[in-house]
Design brief:
SAM-dependent methyltransferase; 233 residues; methyltransferase; Rossmann fold; single chain; SAM-dependent_MTases_sf; transferase
């Protein structure tokens, strides 16, 4: 039963990174919105929708059945990348989680992650830590994108196995890919980063501990570097 579905800007930008005709896994699929969208738009029809919790997976199954795509989308209960062990998956989506959790999911099954042609990652936080992990652990970031919903800017990171160029500290916070592509939302991302750092500095400056002073100084240096990037756009 075909029904109309429109993704949010964030989810549509994630889906846009999927290559045509490949086998994909959506880790932490929740309602299976992206898998359903990919099938409905004839992007790919061989999808594994995975989740660690039975509740969200049952919700995904109901959504898949509602759209009549149970032959195209297989649901699997399991933790991280374990459900797709031994399967030939070309694109892996891990979205809507914290960057540290995404890092742990990849690290726990790094052979599976490196066997994929493409990792499509959308961290909700700690984006810089995820970039640092990828660059320092045998991955190369091949593309980045941004999406806006209301006032929030979301970052999408696409990576694959490979030797990365070296990154300066600022590169982990503001992606060189976004600068090179002159992404139209980059200025908004930079403004958001500046506000975040100013808030941290203000909080640290109210304390007199060594760690607070150290953190404040580090953030002030980073803030100036981010402002310099903004001035060069």
């Amino acid at each position: 039963m075909e029904q109309y579905m429109q993704l949010t800007s964030r989810l549509e930008t994630i889906a846009k990174q999927v290559a045509n005709g490949v086998t994909i896994a959506d880790i932490g699929t929740d309602h299976a919105f992206i898998p359903i969208y990919l099938v409905k738009n004839n992007i790919t029809k061989n999808i594994y929708a995975c989740d660690i919790n039975i509740g969200p997976l049952d919700m995904a199954k109901r959504q898949i059945d509602k759209y009549g795509y149970s032959k195209d989308i297989t649901t699997i209960l399991g933790e991280g990348l374990e459900p797709i062990k031994g399967l030939n998956v070309q694109n892996i989506i891990i979205a809507g989680m914290g960057g540290l959790l995404i890092k742990d999911i990849i690290d726990n099954d790094i052979k599976i992650a490196k066997a994929a042609e493409k990792l499509i990652l959308q961290p909700m936080s700690f984006q810089e830590d995820l970039r640092r992990y990828l660059v320092q652990n045998g991955f190369i970031i091949i593309h980045e994108d941004l999406a806006q919903e209301d006032r929030r800017i979301y970052q999408i990171i696409v990576a694959q196995k490979g030797k990365s160029d070296s990154y300066d500290e600022i590169d982990y916070h503001i992606s060189p890919n976004l600068i090179k592509d002159k992404h139209p939302l980059l200025k908004k991302l930079i403004a958001s980063k500046e506000r975040e750092l100013i808030k941290i500095i203000s909080s640290c400056d109210r304390e007199v501990t060594y760690n607070a002073i150290k953190k404040s100084n580090e953030c002030k240096i980073l803030l100036e570097k981010i402002k310099e990037v903004g001035r060069c756009l």
